Amino acid sequence: xxxQVFRFGNFTFTGVEVALGVAAVAxxxxxxxxxxxxxxxxxxxxxxxxxxxxxxxxIARVVQAQGEISGQMQAMRDALATSNxxxxxxxxxxxxxxxxxxxxxxxxxxTIDAAQKTIDALSSQVVELRQILSNKQSRGLFGQMxxxxxxxxxxPPTAFTFQATLSNRSxxxxxxxxxxxxxxxxxxxxxxxxxxxxxxxxxPEAAKTASAQLRRDITTHIKAMGENYFIPxxxxxxxxxxxxxxxxxxDLSENFEDVVQEGYRRGIMIVSPALLMLxxxxxxxxxxxxxxxxxxxxxxxxxxKLIQDVQRLGDRVEKLRTHxxxxxxxxxxxxxxxxxxxxRGEKIQGLELGESEDTPEPALDFEEDxxxxxxxxxxxx
Length: 381
Hints:
Oligomer: single chain
Strand content: 5-15%
Shape: elongated
Largest sheet: 5 strands, mixed
Order of helices and strands: EEHHHEEEHHEHHEHHH
Number of strands: 7
CATH class of the largest domain: Alpha Beta
Radius of gyration: 62 Å
């Protein structure tokens, strides 16, 4: 009741205020009734001039009742004020809690809206993928694009060709070339209609019919690949049939092992994206080994040239050592001549110190002993 609101004109009252008002009116009515009774009693007393004691007692009781009513009304006012304070606090707390809840709800709605947009985008992509896979030509293009992406990411551009034309006018989806060896053919046109019919079969008869159709379609495609893609000297005796789904390949390997074995016998290997990646890794190793073998003669030639350069360097070092030996011999001869010159100078200096100042210097006859006195003019000096 405290939550109800009553409107009287321009005034608004709560349920508690209305109840207190009604109680106050009831007390006033009681007071008026008591006063009316008192007046009637007074009139009777005046008329009868008797019962004054009873009148006084009634007056006292009326006064006492009036005091009690006043106290009760004060208590009711205090209770009303306390109740209003609790109501205002409860309303404030409720408003804060509601605001916080609305804020959290708004945040969650934003998150849900973003998730819904993501779900819508994924749904549209799934629908597009379903449309692609429902169309045979689009599905073949999808498988071919997946196969091309795997090969492009693993092999150099010179090692493969897409939609190449063979000598018999056949056009496989991919042709991987090996140096000095026939090329490997990869086909991505897998007959998926019968497999889809098998997945959609609701009765054993429909499943049996779809299984038989799937076996016929795969076997026919295997035979066509063997007839069109096996050319002696031009292509390998093994070809790859690519399926753009690992789950479809697993289903074939589990439930149609006879078809897979038939492909092996005819040289056709059915591969999924994971198996194609493994095959491409093996092809990478083969290509690297072939490149090493092709460059072996170049390596041998370069090693031979390196050996010749080393031998030529040895000859030149030997010649340089000979020149150094001759230079050492020449230096020794120069030192001998220098020693002789120094010895002659010492002898000449001794002769000058042994003579007196008055003694004339003897004349030297250079013509008589020129060869003996000038050793540096001899052939040995």
